[in-house]
Write a structure and sequence with these properties.
This protein is an alpha+beta fold and about 180 residues long. It has helices at about 30-40, 45-55, 60-75, 100-110, 115-125, 140-170, 175-180; strands at about 5-10, 15, 20, 45, 80-85, 85-90, 95-100. The strands form two sheets. A four-stranded mixed sheet has the order 3-2-1-7. Helix 1 crosses helix 3 and helix 5 (about 115-125) packs antiparallel against helix 6 (about 140-170). It starts with a strand and ends with a helix.
């Protein structure tokens, strides 16, 4: 049976596995690790991940904590991960939908001038990236998260502006005003 994972990271984060909320993943740092891997879409060195999430503890303890987080992820999400000796990434053949990726794809499709991809992007943008999510003692993760949050917010604001301008140009002033607000 092929499993499906959905990561809703715009707004309050939600993990959906096979159509149901995954609540068993209680480690905030394991969640942060999953979110980081999914959004970046590339393999990362274990040492870099340990530093990013446990940079405030000695290296040996950071690596041990990373192993525990990876074990927690493996227990629940093994088909979606590629955990190797030196690197960790999302499995390239796994069915994993990430709203951030879909949001950015919709904006790229909007470059052709259609309003529908812009509307799709706005439907996906339920709030700021990882809204209400906090990882204690991980300043490098926080720096990445805040930069992503600002970048995605700017894209959303630009998107809203585009929709409002198009609405005004087409004479739909009510929509343009609602979007501007």
């Amino acid at each position: 049976m092929k499993h499906e994972l959905q990561l809703h990271l715009l707004g309050t984060p939600r993990i959906i596995l096979d159509g149901r909320p995954l609540t068993a993943l209680t480690s905030v740092k394991a969640q942060a690790l999953l979110f980081y891997l999914a959004v970046t879409g590339q393999a990362h060195a274990r040492s870099a991940l340990a530093d990013m999430l446990w940079g405030d503890v000695p290296d040996e303890l950071a690596r041990a904590n990373l192993r525990k987080a990876l074990q927690a992820l493996r227990q629940r999400l093994d088909p979606f991960l590629r955990i190797e000796r030196d690197t960790v990434s999302m499995a390239p053949d796994a069915t994993c939908w990430v709203d951030v990726t879909a949001f950015e794809a919709a904006l790229r499709n909007a470059a052709d001038g259609g309003d529908e991809p812009l509307r799709q992007a706005m439907d996906l943008y339920r709030g700021d990236f990882l809204e209400g999510f906090y990882v204690r003692g991980a300043p490098d993760f926080e720096a990445w998260w805040l930069a992503e949050q600002a970048r995605l917010r700017e894209l959303a604001l630009y998107n809203i502006q585009q929709l409002a301008e198009r609405g005004a140009a087409q004479g739909d002033l009510a929509q343009a005003i609602a979007l501007a607000r």
